[in-house]
Amino acid sequence: MIETRAARYEDLAAVHSITQRAYAAWLPVLGYPAQPMTDDHGPRIKRGEVLLACHGQHVLGLIAVEPSDDHHLIFSVAVDPDSAGKGIGPRLIAEAERQAFLAGKRRMTLYTNALMVRNIELYLKLGYRETGRRPNTARPGFTIVDMEKMLDDI
C-alpha cells in the first residue's frame, strides 16, 4: 500500500536521489539541469513543504509545494524511475491539492519548461490549464509555461 506523509530531515538523501534520477531524463532535452536538481531541499523539508509517497519505508516519489497567500505553487514532482507509470505523480498532486484546499486555497499553480511536453500533457489531463508563456530569464532562449487549476470542492 502506498501512503503519503510529510518528509522528515532523515529523508533528505532519498529526496535528493529521487529528484536527481527523475529529472535526469530531461538533461538531454534541456541541455542543463532542471531547477529542482540544483535546489537545496533541506529548507523545504524543514518548512513542511515536501510530501512523500512511500511503500513501507521506501520512498517512491515526492512533491514540493510552496504556499502563498492565495494559492499553492507546485515547485517539483519527482517519481523514482523504478516506480514511474504507477500513478504516483498524480496521487501526490491530488494530495497536495487536497491539502491546499483544506488550507483555504482555491488555486494551485505551477510552471514548467515548454520543452517538457510530457509533463504539460499530464498536467492538462489532471485539470490544469495553461495561463501563459514567458521567457526564462535564467536561461535565455527557453520558455516557461505557467499553469493553474482551480480547486473546487475536493
Q: How would you describe what is shown here?
A:
The chain is α+β, with helices and mostly antiparallel strands and 154 residues long. It has a single domain (2-150), classed as Aminopeptidase (3-Layer(aba) Sandwich). It is built from 6 helices and 7 strands; from the N terminus they run E-H-H-H-H-E-E-E-H-E-H-E-E. A 7-stranded mixed sheet has the order 1-2-3-4-5-7-6. Strand 3 and strand 4 (72-79) form a beta hairpin. The mean pLDDT is 95.
* Shape summary: globular
Instruction: Estimate nothing, just give the exact number of structural domains.
Output: 1
Helix content: 25-40%
Question: If you compute it from the alpha carbons, what radius of gyration comes out, rounded to the nearest whole angstrom?
Answer: 15 Å
- As for the CATH topology, it is Aminopeptidase
The H/E string reads: EHHHHEEEHEHEE
Rounded to the nearest angstrom, the distance between the terminal CA atoms is 22 Å
CATH superfamily: Gcn5-related N-acetyltransferase (GNAT)
CATH architecture label name: 3-Layer(aba) Sandwich
Largest sheet: 7 strands, mixed
- The mean pLDDT is 95
Detail the poorly predicted runs: none
